[in-house]
Amino acid sequence: MKVFCGIFAFVFGLTGFSCFYNLAIGRHPSSPLALFLLGVFSFAITALCIWGMKRSVTGDKETGRGVILKTKIIDAYGKTSTVSAAARGVVGNIVAGPVGGIVGASTAKSKRSTTFLIIYKNGNKQTRTVPNGSFEYQKYIKYLE
Fold first, then answer.
1. Is the pTM higher than 0.70?
2. Sign (positive or negative) of CA dihedral 120, 124, 130, 136
């Protein structure tokens, strides 16, 4: 990200400088107002790019913001879809009788989630509820106490 921000800052900085230079020497390839607005816009984008570069360099490393120290599981719960259970139970009953109905209903889709307490290196704490098996879940599991 730092490389892209640097490239964009350089390009937009040159564009802004070129716009104001052309206004100063009196050469107007387009209307002076459009040239002025383009210069202001270019310098604003340059400032945002430099701010992004600075933030990506110092944001996580020095202050510890965004760097996870450890996690704890606060709550874990699941929700089974009753429509899915009923449909699978009916199909299981048709195919294999009452035992098939029980097995079909027990294989219903369920959504399981876990709530983590995330403790960052800078001392901040945050709770997040994420679906089991998701990318975030795998990330937080690595930091469990």
1. no
2. negative
